[in-house]
Every structure is written in C-alpha cells, then in structure tokens.
C-alpha cells in the first residue's frame, strides 16, 4: 500500500496526524508530510481510518 495525497485539496487539518502520528505530520508551515509513504502492515488499520476521516478527502491508498 502506498499513501497518496492530493495536495491541491489538502488543508492540513491534521486529522490524519492525530490518528496516525507515526505516518503523518503537519509542519510549522502547515504542510502535510507523509513520513511513511508505504506504511507497515501493523499501521494499516490506523492509516485506513485516517484516510476515511480526512475532512477534505485528500488522502487515498494506492494498491488497495
């Protein structure tokens, strides 16, 4: 699985970071950074939850 971000839609609300801080980070300039673009299997449930919870639907999982 690979995380995809539509940066044209993302507002860096940090919902994803709150749900999976090992994978997502919003920096001081309000930019979303994906720390683990291909998260390990043990984090996939949390990443899926973060993708579903994105208020702007800016996240998706490729290969699912």
TrEMBL record:
Gene3D superfamilies in the record: 3.30.70.20
Keywords attached to this entry: 3Fe-4S, Electron transport, Iron, Iron-sulfur, Metal-binding, Transport
Swiss-Prot/TrEMBL cofactor(s): [3Fe-4S] cluster
UniProt cross-references to Pfam families, sorted A to Z: Fer4_15
Stored PANTHER family: FERREDOXIN
Name of this chain's protein: Ferredoxin
Annotated source species: Sphaerisporangium dianthi
Taxonomic path: Bacteria, Bacillati, Actinomycetota, Actinomycetes, Streptosporangiales
